């Protein structure tokens, strides 16, 4: 129950900034329009590139814009609070509490993601539907699988952001690592270009890395590219990374706790 | 005209202060610079991958798109390094720092732009310069083309200066709408990475006369590449970039003045 309360409060906290939300939706939509035309030009020259058709490609663009903030692709979200508390030493107080740090911040990040999905996710999707006639999930199963995949995407992204924030235990300032991690996330999530277009070994590598769960996997599920066992495998891929990375978060936290005690907070 | 030079010197001093402050976290400093170079570098890799599926994008080859990409990226990097901090003006208003700045004997715009100056954009600057340099080796150079290329970079930076300052002023009216400006600054930069032929005619007209990012690289690059405008616009536009730069800047300064006059402190 505690974690639900944490999530609800995070949701409400983010919902305070209405103008920021509106201007964000506007910006996402502008980028959606730009990339749509770029992809239309690409698929006009090569109508079957990456196994997508033009409509798939444009749908992919708008899904990417909708997911951008929901999964906090650039980093940030509630893990930024953690990094700041590590820098100031306040984290020592958090570590006293009888609640796990990972669970606490995960709950709060899920609350944030829910808010961003409802606003920054739905906003651009509706614009994409109206202006570019993007495709909707083909069946109820696809839609449900997409919803599950989306939650997993947030969890994987959270775990990576938590690890990035944890570097502040050693570096005091997370911003450098955060930018590096953001750069990889943009490229390997398929945000910049669908991973289906990546050639040869680069494509194999990109689809095996955890970032693929951010955009490429949910988008392919939405587009109905995964069916049956393939669908289970796609979701399984996300589950494996979520479990591995959350375990890594716990491990890093244990190492860091020792360090905080040595330093005296 | 001693004033502008003294403002420039003050700007330099404040900027240097922030560079030294950032250096207190050396690992972060280096990672930020490398990371920013990486973001834009991977951006170009993205274009490269796109071209592995195509011979040309809306009539333009990889070399030509690289010229468009490099010149726009360079102009943005220059503008962003110099005055990118102006984006944060909403935060200054909310926290009351703008009031503090107003009491100091240095023009407000100089202070706001120099505040939290960061050299992390060096990464982007370097990457853009490399792509631009590479693309330049495919251009048939004439003295006039060299001149146009030089003026393109300066005017491009001016246009982005103007967009950054002008659209950040929205925050004088609504303090948490930072992202609104991004649609025009970074959005403008993204638009200019592609040949404008991928867009419908109306978009091209808007990018020429409303948000003049077409002058950042599109028109001058057409001249460098010896191509006439696919939309059939006048060739004169290919030399109009300096004018567009100055006009954008002037409009932005006007908006800035209006914004500052409109500003009332939050009282915090």
TrEMBL record, chain A:
Give the InterPro entries listed for this entry: ABC-2_transporter-like (IPR010390)
Protein name (record):
ABC-2 family transporter protein
**Database matches in Pfam families:** ABC2_membrane_6 (PF06182)
Q: Which residues cross the membrane?
A: 19-40, 60-77, 117-137, 143-172, 184-211, 231-253
Question: What is the organism of origin for this protein?
Answer: Nocardioides potassii
Q: Which UniProt keywords apply?
A: Membrane, Transmembrane, Transmembrane helix
Where are the annotated coiled coils located? none
Taxonomy, top ranks, is: Bacteria, Bacillati, Actinomycetota, Actinomycetes, Propionibacteriales
Q: Mind telling me which PANTHER family this protein's record contains?
A: INTEGRAL MEMBRANE PROTEIN (PTHR36832:SF2), SLR1174 PROTEIN-RELATED (PTHR36832)
From TrEMBL, chain B:
Q: Which domain of life is it from?
A: Bacteria
TM region positions: 29-51, 57-79, 125-141, 147-170, 203-225, 237-256
Record has Transmembrane as a keyword:
yes
Q: Which UniProt keywords apply?
A: Membrane, Transmembrane, Transmembrane helix
What name goes with this protein? Answer: ABC transporter permease
Organism (species): Nocardioides potassii
